[in-house]
Amino acid sequence: MATTSKQYKVIGEELWKGRAEKTNAELFALTYGALVVQLIQDYEDYEEVNKQLEKMGYNIGTRLIEDFLARSNIGRCVDFRETGEVVAKVGFKSFLNITPSVTHGGLPIAASPTRSSTASPAPTIPGATFTLTLDENPLAEFVELPEEALEGGLWFSNILCGVLRGALEMIQMQVTATFISDVLRGDETTEIKVTLVKYLEEEVPVGDD
Amino acid sequence: MAIFGLWVINKAGGLVYERNFGDGLPRLTSNEYLVLAGTLHGIHAITSRLSPIGPSSGAQVIEGETFKMTILLTATGTKFVLLTSLAESTADVVLQKVYEVYADAVMKNPFHTPEMPIRSEGFDRRITALLG
């Protein structure tokens, strides 16, 4: 039962509206900013801060996925491409009220020169990727990175990568999520690339409903 | 129409929460509950392979003469099992609500370790409010 992109947008919108308790966006941005600054002071190494943010995000993601599944009632995604769509249109929308745009990609498999990202069944093999392009980032509302942070390689919103990794791992997908570019660093866009490493085969066989 | 009991089983088959409502069910020792939950977990895994027409979910409802057992398997591998009388028709809806309460009261508590037994007053309270 393929759900169209438009239907996902509607689901996302409804979930966002249905949330009884929303947080003040500024308070959220300020809290996150304070957290990052504190981490920088504690670790004094931007790579380490990136790692810690990712770890925290992972913890959040493993828990957040239950809330998402309980409320959205979305069934299993057919392939990794659909996963990307759901993450962007329903996931991000229902939690952050933003809808990043998604571009799909993946390893071109040996023979096919006509690999198109629309017609053929989407790559579900390890190596499939999708990239989220965030037009706005509620975490980084008022932020300007200082010189040292720019040189040190800080990804300010790296917690999002952890959230993606944690959430997807709980539904049997091992992924890596990394920032490709960030407007805070002077790039044109803010982009997160999510790559499927492998599907996790657990002892619990979770069949198709 | 009555709800007798609720079990929550983690993805490894371990029982993380059990609760009886009313006095329909006799009280077992915690060890017995653990064994029952583990057995159910195994049976559920087997039933998902029994479908003659390809991949399927595991058993969702198991009925006996005097009771019904409804199982909700989440995409994360957690099982919510509701034991009710035969006449109870709202088991699926109730289980979905239990899942929501679980997502709120249990998973969002940063001090709760996932897959570990649930010791949360908030969860107990809300389940009581939901299931009596």
Automatic annotation (TrEMBL), chain A:
Coiled coil (UniProt feature): none
Localization: Endoplasmic reticulum; Golgi apparatus, cis-Golgi network
One Pfam match: TRAPP
Presence of keyword Endoplasmic reticulum: yes
Cited SUPFAM superfamilies: Ligand-binding domain in the NO signalling and Golgi transport (SSF111126)
Keywords: Endoplasmic reticulum, ER-Golgi transport, Golgi apparatus, Transport
InterPro entries the UniProt entry points to: Bet3, NO_sig/Golgi_transp_ligand-bd, TRAPP_component
Top-level taxon of origin: Eukaryota
Family the entry assigns: Belongs to the TRAPP small subunits family. BET3 subfamily.
Protein name listed in UniProt: Trafficking protein particle complex subunit BET3
TrEMBL record, chain B:
Name of protein: Trafficking protein particle complex subunit
A Pfam match: Sybindin
Subcellular location, record wording: Endoplasmic reticulum; Golgi apparatus, cis-Golgi network; Golgi apparatus
Coarse class of the protein's main subcellular location: endoplasmic reticulum
Assigned protein family: Belongs to the TRAPP small subunits family. TRAPPC4 subfamily.
Organism lineage: Eukaryota, Fungi, Dikarya, Basidiomycota, Agaricomycotina
CDD domains according to UniProt: TRAPPC4_synbindin
PANTHER family the UniProt entry points to: TRAFFICKING PROTEIN PARTICLE COMPLEX SUBUNIT (PTHR23249), TRAFFICKING PROTEIN PARTICLE COMPLEX SUBUNIT 4 (PTHR23249:SF15)
Subunit structure: Part of the multisubunit transport protein particle (TRAPP) complex.
InterPro entries xref list: Longin-like_dom_sf (IPR011012), TRAPPC (IPR007233)
Keyword field: Endoplasmic reticulum, ER-Golgi transport, Golgi apparatus, Transport
